[in-house]
């Protein structure tokens, strides 16, 4: 969540914590904003008894609590469940809600495992890499039902490898890319495997990794150059530039600049991991 939200109703003393995006919700306006902008995350981890209790105990909305609690027992769809929440503060017009409900119905029409992958992809796109990995692992763990094809599983392994890469856990990333390649070969995944497996290593390591996945010497060289370009870009990132500049300074100026740069990098880490 970002930007400003005008809140006119009661503010909770204890927030409702949404783990998927590491966000505290204090008001009905914030809750409606979240529901409206994160439809791919609307499942039992959000729409549950805990949310109902929070609405009653923190916001004092007894009638809304009773209505939502009945809906939980009836196991209604996500669209049906969230409608009374929006109506409570007239957050959406009927036209806006119909559009939202249409998107929810389209999502709910997908098989459960597909919905889980979409959820993981959405978390990835929003920088929530640790939570995305958890969703991908859960999806792969349910593959034993036989409802998940090899191509689909390969996509999940690849995406999970990308999430580990963003966290600089390159050994885990390489293993995910390797698992993906065993299910479905692709040039994109071979390149990703080479980069994750050989980052910071010598040319012999690149040759060995290329041989393992039957990549050509040309593929290995292209992957190595891509890694070099990525490393150059990383050094130009705002936080890294500020830290480098700080190290060129001295005394109090050094301390102040380094502190600001580290705070920026730390904030980015917390955003991506939820810790």
From TrEMBL:
It comes from the Bacteria. The keyword Transmembrane does not apply. Coiled coil: none annotated. TPR repeats lie at residues 154-187. Keywords: TPR repeat. InterPro entries: TPR-like_helical_dom_sf (IPR011990), TPR_rpt (IPR019734). This is Tetratricopeptide repeat protein. It comes from Candidatus Egerieimonas intestinavium. The lineage of its organism: Bacteria, Bacillati, Bacillota, Clostridia, Lachnospirales.
């Amino acid at each position: 969540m970002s930007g400003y939200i005008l809140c006119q109703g009661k503010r909770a003393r204890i927030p409702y914590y949404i783990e998927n995006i590491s966000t505290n919700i204090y008001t009905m306006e914030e809750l409606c904003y979240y529901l409206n902008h994160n439809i791919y995350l609307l499942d039992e981890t959000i729409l549950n008894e805990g949310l109902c209790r929070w609405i009653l105990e923190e916001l004092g909305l007894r009638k809304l609590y009773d209505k939502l609690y009945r809906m939980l027992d009836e196991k209604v769809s996500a669209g049906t469940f969230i409608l009374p929440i929006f109506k409570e503060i007239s957050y959406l017009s009927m036209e806006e809600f119909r559009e939202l409900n249409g998107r929810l119905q389209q999502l709910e029409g997908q098989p459960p495992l597909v919905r889980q992958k979409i959820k993981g992809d959405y978390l990835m796109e929003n920088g929530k890499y640790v939570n995305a990995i958890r969703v991908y692992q859960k999806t792969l763990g349910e593959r034993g039902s036989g409802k998940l094809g090899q191509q689909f599983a390969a996509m999940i392994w690849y995406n999970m490898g990308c999430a580990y890469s963003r966290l600089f856990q390159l050994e885990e990333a390489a293993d995910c890319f390797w698992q993906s390649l065993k299910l479905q070969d692709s040039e994109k995944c071979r390149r990703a495997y080479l980069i994750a497996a050989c980052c910071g290593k010598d040319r012999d390591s690149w040759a060995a990794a290329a041989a393992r996945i039957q990549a050509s010497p040309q593929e290995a060289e292209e992957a190595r150059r891509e890694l070099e370009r990525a490393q150059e870009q990383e050094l130009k990132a705002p936080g890294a530039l500020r830290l480098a500049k700080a190290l060129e300074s001295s005394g109090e100026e050094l301390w102040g600049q380094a502190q600001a740069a580290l705070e920026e990098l730390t904030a980015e880490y917390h955003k991506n991991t939820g810790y």
